[in-house]
C-alpha cells in the first residue's frame, strides 16, 4: 500500500515553558525536542500495515531543518522515506501545515495517511480534518482501533461517554489516539538502518497563516491555596470552606 | 459591516448539552459587542419545548435540521450520523445566513468538525478558546498551548472565523428574552451531496451509564496513592456523595487499575470542572496539563511537598485511607442539608 504518516517535532512534555523576549513564542533555550507522542502511534500503525499488506511508508514533516529529527525517529521505527517541507521559521499555523501537506499529496495517490490525533505543542486537533477537506478524502480522528478490509476501513473513535464505530472508504485519513497500539522501541539494527534512509527536502509554499499570535504569556500563577496539615481533623473545616467560600458543593 | 454569527449546538438523547448553553450565551455576548445578531443551528431531533427553552439563554432565531431527513440522503443506509455531513450542513447554513463567524463547543464532535468547516468556509480557526474578546470590531481569543503551560492571544485578518469554546469555561447566562423563531430547514435545500457522507458513524458503543470526565462539572480523581484497584471504591464513594465523575492519573491507567477513558492529562482528557479533587496524585506536569484550568482544585496527598499542592486551592496533607471516608461522610451531611 502507498502509506503516508505526518509527524511533528514538539518540546518534550516535561519542558518548563518560558516565554521568549518577543512575547510571542517560547524560549527554546534548554528545551529538548521529541517526536509528538501521538505521532508515534501513527508511525507504528503505518509500519504494522506495511508489514501485513506490503507497500511503503513515507513520512512527512513541515518545519525547519530541526523537524528532520522527528522523521529520523520514524525511520528508526521502520518508515522508508522522508519528506521535509521546509520552512524558514517555526512561526506557522495549522492551516499552513494542512495546506502544504495537501499540496504535496495531491498527485501522490495516497491510500492511507496517518496523523497523530493532536500535537502536544499547539494542541490543534485540526490538521487531519483540514487535510481531509483539502484533499476531498474522508478522515476519522481519535482512533483507538482500526480494521482495513477490501478497500474499506472500520474505526473505533473515542468520544465522550463511549465510542463511535465509523466506516469509510480508502483513501482515508486516520488520527491515531493512545490505545490503538504499543509503539515499538527501535533496536540497534533499525537504528543503524535508519541512517541511510533518504530525506527529500522541498520548499514550503509561500502562503500566509490564517491566525497570528499577538501575545504569549504564562497562565496566572495560583497563590494562597489553603493547605491543612492535621489530616482527618481538618476535613469538616475544608468541607465548610468548599461550601461557603468556594461555593462548589 | 458587522459580522453575523452562526452558533452550532449539540444535543444528546433529545436534550441539549450544557456546552450548548455556553455557546449560545457567548454568541449573544459577542454579537452584542459587534452590534450584530446570531442564529442558532441544531441538527437532530429535539422536542419543541426543549428548543423553546433556548430563548432563556437569549436565542431568538433557531434553525433545526432533521437528522433522519439528513441521514436519508446518505448513500450508505442505516447510519447513526455522519460527521462529514454535519460539517456540510453547518457550512451551508452559515452561507445561507451570511454568517461570517461560526461558534461551537470544543467537544469531541466540535473538534472533529472545526477543521472541516474551516476549510469549507475559508475560515481562520480560534480553537479551544478560554476567552473571546472584541476590540474595535476585531475579535481576538485566548487559548491554552503547550498543554496549558502557556496561553496565547490570537487574531486573524481573515473575513471568516470559526471559534470553538472549551467546554465548561464559559458560563451560561439566563436572559429575560422570550421571543423565539424556529425554522425547520430541509436538508434538500442545503446543497448537501453524497460526497459529504464520506465518513459515517454506523454504531455507538455507550460505555456504562457513568458520567464522562470530559463533561462532568465535578471530578474526583485517584492516583497511585490508592495502592490498588480494590481501593477505588473510596474514590467512587466520594464522587457519588457529590454527584461527581471519577478520573484517574496515567500511572493507574497504565497499571490497569482504571480504564483509559478516565485518564486525565496530556495523553488523556482535558477537563475544566468547577471542582477537581485529586487524591493520591503527585501532580506531574502531564497530569496538570489536563486539569489545571479547573476552577477549584482540592488535593489530598500524604506528601506535603507533592507538586499538586502548588496549584491546589485547598488541600489536606494526609492519608487518603483516612481522609476520603471522612470527607465522604462530611459531603453527605452538607449535601443533604
Ligand atoms: C508523554 C507523557 C504523557 C503523560 N501523560 C499523562 C497523562 O495524561 N495523565 C497523567 O496523569 N500522567 C501522565 N503522564 C505520567 C506522569 O508523568 C506521572 O507519571 C503520573 O501522572 C503519576 O501518577 P500518580 O500521581 O498517580 O503517581 P505518583 O507520581 O506515583 O504519585 C502518587 C502520589 O500519591 C501519594 N500517596 C501515596 N500514598 C498515599 C496515601 N496513602 N495517602 C495520600 N497520598 C498518598 C504520594 O505522595 C504521591 O504524591 C505522562 C507522562 C509522559 C512522559
Ligand atoms: N508541522 C507538522 N508537520 C507534519 N505533520 C504535522 C505537523 N504538525 C502537526 N502534524 C500532524 O497533525 C497531527 C495533529 O496536529 P494538530 O492538528 O496540530 O493537533 C499531528 O499529530 C501530526 O500527525
Detail the topology: elements first, then pairings:
The complex is a heterodimer of chains A (249) and B (337).
Chain A: E1 2-6, E2 9-11, E3 33-35, H1 37-53, E4 56-63, H2 68-77, E5 81-86, H3 94-105, E6 112-116, H4 127-135, E7 139-149, E8 152-159, E9 162-169, E10 172-176, H5 188-194, E11 199-203, E12 211-217, E13 226-228, H6 235-244
Parallel strand pairs in A: 1-4, 1-6, 4-5, 5-11, 6-10, 7-10
Antiparallel strand pairs in A: 2-3, 7-8, 8-9
Chain B: E1 4-9, E2 11-12, E3 15-16, H1 18-34, E4 38-43, H2 48-53, E5 61-65, H3 67-71, H4 83-96, E6 99-105, H5 108-120, E7 123-129, E8 131-135, E9 138-145, E10 150-156, E11 160-165, E12 181-184, E13 199-206, E14 218-222, H6 233-241, E15 245-248, H7 250-254, E16 275-279, H8 285-291, E17 296-301, H9 308-311, E18 314-317, H10 320-336
Parallel strand pairs in B: 1-4, 1-6, 4-5, 5-12, 6-11, 7-11, 14-15, 14-16, 16-17, 17-18
Antiparallel strand pairs in B: 2-3, 8-9, 9-10
Helix pairs in contact in B: 4-5, 6-10
Bound molecules: flavin-adenine dinucleotide (FAD) and adenosine monophosphate (AMP).
Please sum up the structure shown.
The complex is a heterodimer of chains A (249) and B (337). Chain A is α/β, with parallel strands linked by helices and 249 residues long. Chain A has 6 helices and 13 strands.
Query: H/E order of the elements of chain A?
Result: EEEHEHEHEHEEEEHEEEH
Largest sheet of chain B: 7 strands, parallel
Quote the average pLDDT of chain B.
93
**Helix-strand makeup class of chain B:** alpha/beta
CATH architecture of the largest domain in chain B: 3-Layer(aba) Sandwich
| Count of separate DSSP helical elements of chain B | 10
- Counted up, domains of chain B total 2
Multimeric organization: heterodimer
How many DSSP H or I helices of chain A?
Answer: 6
Strand order of the largest sheet of chain B: 7-11-6-1-4-5-12
Over all CA atoms, what is the radius of gyration of chain B? 22 Å
Please identify the top-level CATH class of the largest domain in chain B.
Alpha Beta
Structural class of chain A: alpha/beta
CATH superfamily of the largest domain in chain B: HUPs
Low-pLDDT stretches of chain B: none
Provide the β-strand percentage band of chain A. Answer: 25-35%
The greatest inter-chain interface is formed by:
A-B, 81 and 92 residues
Q: Which small compounds were modeled alongside the protein?
A: flavin-adenine dinucleotide, adenosine monophosphate
Amino acid at each position: 500500500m502507498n502509506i503516508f504518516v505526518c509527524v511533528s517535532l514538539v518540546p518534550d512534555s516535561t519542558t518548563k515553558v518560558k516565554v521568549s523576549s518577543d512575547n510571542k513564542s517560547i524560549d527554546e533555550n534548554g528545551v529538548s525536542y521529541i517526536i509528538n507522542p501521538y505521532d508515534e502511534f501513527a508511525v507504528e500503525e503505518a509500519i504494522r500495515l506495511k508489514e501485513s499488506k506490503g507497500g511503503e511508508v513515507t513520512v512527512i514533516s513541515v518545519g525547519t531543518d530541526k523537524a528532520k529529527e522527528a522523521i529520523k525517529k520514524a525511520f528508526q521505527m521502520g518508515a522508508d522515506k522522508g519528506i521535509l517541507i521546509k520552512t524558514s521559521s517555526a512561526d506557522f499555523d495549522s492551516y499552513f501545515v494542512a495546506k502544504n501537506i495537501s499540496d504535496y499529496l495531491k498527485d501522490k495517490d495516497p491510500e492511507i495517511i496517518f496523523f497523530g490525533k493532536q500535537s502536544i505543542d499547539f494542541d490543534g486537533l485540526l490538521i487531519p480534518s483540514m487535510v481531509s477537506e483539502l484533499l476531498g478524502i474522508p478522515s476519522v480522528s481519535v482512533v483507538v482501533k482500526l480494521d482495513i478490509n477490501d478497500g474499506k476501513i472500520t474505526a473505533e473513535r473515542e468520544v465522550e461517554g463511549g465510542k463511535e464505530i465509523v466506516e469509510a472508504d480508502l483513501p482515508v485519513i486516520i488520527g491515531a489516539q493512545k490505545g490503538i497500539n504499543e509503539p515499538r522501541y527501535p533496536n540497534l539494527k533499525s537504528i543503524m538502518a535508519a541512517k541511510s534512509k533518504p530525506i527529500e527536502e522541498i520548499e514550503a509554499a509561500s502562503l500566509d497563516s490564517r491566525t497570528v499570535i499577538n501575545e504569549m504569556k504564562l497562565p496566572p500563577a495560583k497563590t494562597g491555596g489553603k493547605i491543612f496539615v492535621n489530616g482527618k481533623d481538618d476535613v469538616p473545616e475544608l468541607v465548610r470552606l468548599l461550601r461557603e467560600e468556594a461555593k462548589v458543593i | 459591516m458587522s459580522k453575523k454569527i452562526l452558533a452550532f449546538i449539540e444535543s444528546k438523547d433529545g436534550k441539549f448539552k450544557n456546552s450548548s448553553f455556553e455557546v449560545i450565551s457567548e454568541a449573544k455576548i459577542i454579537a452584542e459587542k459587534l452590534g450584530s445578531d446570531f442564529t442558532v443551528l441544531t441538527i437532530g431531533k429535539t422536542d419543541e419545548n426543549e428548543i423553546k427553552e433556548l430563548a432563556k439563554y437569549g436565542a431568538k432565531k433557531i434553525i433545526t435540521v432533521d437528522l433522519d431527513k439528513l441521514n436519508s440522503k446518505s448513500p450508505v443506509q442505516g447510519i447513526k450520523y455522519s460527521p462529514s455531513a454535519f460539517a456540510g450542513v453547518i457550512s451551508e447554513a452559515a452561507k445561507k445566513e451570511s454568517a461570517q463567524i461560526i461558534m461551537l463547543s470544543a467537544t469531541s464532535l466540535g473538534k472533529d468538525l472545526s477543521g472541516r468547516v474551516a476549510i469549507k468556509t475559508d475560515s481562520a480557526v480560534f480553537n479551544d478558546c478560554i476567552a473571546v474578546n472584541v476590540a474595535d470590531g476585531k475579535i481576538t481569543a485566548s487559548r491554552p498551548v503547550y498543554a496549558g503551560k502557556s496561553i496565547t492571544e490570537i487574531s486573524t485578518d481573515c473575513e471568516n472565523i470559526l471559534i470553538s469554546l472549551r467546554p465548561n469555561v464559559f458560563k451560561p447566562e439566563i436572559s429575560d428574552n422570550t421571543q423565539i423563531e424556529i425554522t425547520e430547514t430541509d436538508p434538500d435545500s442545503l446543497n448537501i451531496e453524497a460526497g459529504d457522507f464520506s465518513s459515517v458513524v454506523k454504531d455507538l458503543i455507550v460505555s456504562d451509564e457513568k458520567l464522562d470526565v470530559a463533561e462532568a462539572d465535578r471530578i474526583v480523581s485517584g492516583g497511585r496513592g490508592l495502592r490498588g484497584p480494590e481501593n477505588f471504591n473510596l474514590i467512587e464513594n466520594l464522587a457519588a456523595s457529590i454527584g461527581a465523575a471519577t478520573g484517574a492519573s496515567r500511572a493507574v491507567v497504565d497499571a490497569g487499575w482504571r480504564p483509559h477513558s478516565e485518564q486525565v492529562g496530556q495523553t488523556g482528557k482535558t477537563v475544566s470542572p468547577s471542582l477537581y479533587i485529586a487524591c493520591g496524585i503527585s501532580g506531574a506536569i502531564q497530569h496538570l496539563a489536563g486539569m489545571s484550568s479547573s476552577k477549584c482544585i482540592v488535593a489530598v496527598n500524604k506528601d506535603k511537598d507533592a507538586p499538586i499542592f502548588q496549584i491546589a486551592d485547598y488541600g489536606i496533607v494526609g492519608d487518603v485511607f483516612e481522609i476520603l471516608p471522612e470527607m465522604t461522610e462530611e459531603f453527605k451531611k452538607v449535601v443533604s442539608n
